[in-house]
């Protein structure tokens, strides 16, 4: 595999007297992030810009790519200025190879390839999902956790074994973040700062639990039927003419109740499958990564389960859960120290790139 150039060395056998620095480019969805990290674990800069569309709408590939093209150079300059690092000091240029939306991925990769050639630096292609995991391990200090990866494009329960991040369970249809985004559009919620965040705030005011389908199939979960069900309830209780006119005000189902009910149902599904993975693998730590991972109610429910098992929960806020450039820089730097290089002619993108396809050679 041309990804591995020269002698294959694990970074624990490579002595570096000076710290290494890496810049990472992330643009797989509606967030463009460019971050710079140091090999000692410090995150030196991590600016980010989000493409936000009007309420009730999503983000399309073409417009998202144009957003990334517009803001890329500014973010590169901000990342360098904030970090105090010059291009000459960088050891490598890392970028998201996939998975993600095609046009935004390509636009971001073009910028990464361009600066790599201008600065004469080697490139490292990074799996977006692995970037989330390695960022979580770096920030929280998690050693060997069960990973719950929940975002707009992915929902996976993961554990490390024999140089791979093994997927023990996942969604069989749509990602949890995608489902929440679609429900936010049904309610015409704002996309600023994100649909999921606004659902979380409404859910805090929910008073009535509306029963929704609970769909766990072994270690896998399904969200499409839940979305169909909650949409039907919304149409009946919120949007139909004279909806609930004969129900006392205090007993009426509100948008807040539906947000609360949806969160409680789908988060319970995720806690169940995560606990089963903990039991199967004999692990005592859980690490939550991905944009949905900064939801405080999900963290609370997971923490309760983990505490009952005598374990610990490792969680982060939106700085590192949400897509960012530092996570790509850190995962890329880990690979770089292990001898991984991506030739410029192979620095391509792919929309389909599973977590368990990556050889995690930097871990014992």
Question: What can you tell me about this protein's structure?
Answer:
- The protein has 364 residues and is of the alpha/beta class.
- The protein has helices at residues 61-83, 102-119, 128-140, 176-186, 195-203, 224-239, 255-281, 296-308, 318-321, 325-337; strands spanning 21-26, 31-38, 43-45, 48-50, 92-98, 123-127, 146-150, 155-161, 164-170, 216-217, 220-221, 285-289, 312-314.
- The protein starts with 20 loop residues before the first strand and ends in a 27-residue tail after the last helix.
Compact description:
This protein has 364 residues and is an alpha/beta fold.
Question: Which band does the percent of strand residues land in?
Answer: 15-25%
Percent of residues in helices = 40-55%
How many beta-strand elements?
13
Structural class category: alpha/beta
The helix-strand sequence is EEEEHEHEHEEEHHEEHHEHEHH
**C-alpha Rg (nearest Å):** 21 Å
Structural shape? globular
- Mean pLDDT across every amino acid position: 95
Q: DSSP helix count?
A: 10
The main β sheet shows up as: 6 strands, mixed
What is the secondary structure topology, with strand pairs?
Elements: E1 21-26, E2 31-38, E3 43-45, E4 48-50, H1 61-83, E5 92-98, H2 102-119, E6 123-127, H3 128-140, E7 146-150, E8 155-161, E9 164-170, H4 176-186, H5 195-203, E10 216-217, E11 220-221, H6 224-239, H7 255-281, E12 285-289, H8 296-308, E13 312-314, H9 318-321, H10 325-337
Parallel strand pairs: 1-5, 5-6, 7-12, 12-13
Antiparallel strand pairs: 1-2, 2-3, 2-4, 7-8, 8-9, 10-11
């Amino acid at each position: 595999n041309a990804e591995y150039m020269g002698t294959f060395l694990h970074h624990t056998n490579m002595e570096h007297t000076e710290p290494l620095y890496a810049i990472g480019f992330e643009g797989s969805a509606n967030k463009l992030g460019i971050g710079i990290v140091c090999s000692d674990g410090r995150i030196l800069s991590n600016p980010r810009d989000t493409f936000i569309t009007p309420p009730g709408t999503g983000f399309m590939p073409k417009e998202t790519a144009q957003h990334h093209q517009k803001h890329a150079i500014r973010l590169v300059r901000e990342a360098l200025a904030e970090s105090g690092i010059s291009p000459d000091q960088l050891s490598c240029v890392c970028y998201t190879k996939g998975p993600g939306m095609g046009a935004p991925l390509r636009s971001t990769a073009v910028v990464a390839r361009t600066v790599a050639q201008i600065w004469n630096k080697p490139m490292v292609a990074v799996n977006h999902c692995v970037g989330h995991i390695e960022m979580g391990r770096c920030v929280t200090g998690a050693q060997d956790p069960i990973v719950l990866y929940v975002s707009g494009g992915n929902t996976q329960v993961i554990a490390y074994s024999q140089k791979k991040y093994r997927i023990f369970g996942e969604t069989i249809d749509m990602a949890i973040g995608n489902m929440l985004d679609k429900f936010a559009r049904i309610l015409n919620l704002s996309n600023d700062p994100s649909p999921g965040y606004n659902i979380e705030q409404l859910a805090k005011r929910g008073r009535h639990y509306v029963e929704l389908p609970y769909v766990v199939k072994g270690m896998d979960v399904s969200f499409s039927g839940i979305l169909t069900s909650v949409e039907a309830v919304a149409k009946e209780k919120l949007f139909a003419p004279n909806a609930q006119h004969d129900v006392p005000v205090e007993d009426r189902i509100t948008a807040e109740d539906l947000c609360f009910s949806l969160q409680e149902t789908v988060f319970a599904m995720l806690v169940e499958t995560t606990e089963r993975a903990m039991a199967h693998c004999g692990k005592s730590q859980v690490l939550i990564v991905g944009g949905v991972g900064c939801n405080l109610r999900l963290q609370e429910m997971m923490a309760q389960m983990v505490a009952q098992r005598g374990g610990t929960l490792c969680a982060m806020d939106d700085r590192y859960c949400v897509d960012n450039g530092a996570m790509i820089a850190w995962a890329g730097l880990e690979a770089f120290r292990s001898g991984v290089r991506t030739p410029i002619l192979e620095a391509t993108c792919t929309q389909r790139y599973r977590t368990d396809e990556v050889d995690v050679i930097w871990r014992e």
